[in-house]
Amino acid sequence: MYFPYLIAYMLAGFVISLITFVWALNAGQFKDQQRARYLPLQGETGPASARPSRFYRFKIIILFTLACSGLVSTAVVIVLIVLQNP
After folding, report:
1. 5 contact partners, CB below 8 Å, separation of at least 6
2. What would the DSSP string read from start to end of the chain?
3. For 76, phi and psi rounded to 5 degrees?
4. Which of 42, 43, 49, 66 is the most exposed place for a label (fewest CB within 10 A)?
5. What ranges do the domains of the chain cover?
6. Residues 13-49, buried b or exposed e (16+ Cβ, 10 A)?
7. pLDDT at 28
8. Distance CA 63, CA 56 (A)
């Protein structure tokens, strides 16, 4: 059966989601909920920097790598399921 692959895939997704949620809590993403509803109504507060910082570029590369690895793992699970069921 293909259930072990799906269970492992779902467990990996749950663990990654839980780690991301804990990181967001520790980073203070959910602290100021009363102010957050008015943020779309405000204009730009200052000029945007011409060049993103090195840390920002590093974060983008990490997020892109995680997204690609998620797509690859999804493809692997699907291929393994198809190969298991002749």
Report:
1. 77, 80, 81, 84
2. --HHHHHHHHHHHHHHHHHHHHHHHHHTTTS-HHHHTTGGGS---SPPPSS--HHHHHHHHHHHHHHHHHHHHHHHHHHHHHHH--
3. -65, -45
4. 43
5. 1-30+54-86
6. eeeeeeeeeeeeeeeeeeeeeeeeeeeeeeeeeeeee
7. 80
8. 11
Q: Residue 22 — left, alpha, or beta (φ > 0 → left; ψ -120 to 50 → alpha)?
A: alpha
pTM of model > 0.85: no
Run means of pLDDT, 10 residues per run, the chain, 86 residues: 77 90 84 71 66 81 89 86 76
Q: Give the CA angle between residues 58, 54, 30 to the nearest 5°.
A: 65
**The tokens of 54 are what?**
């090195």
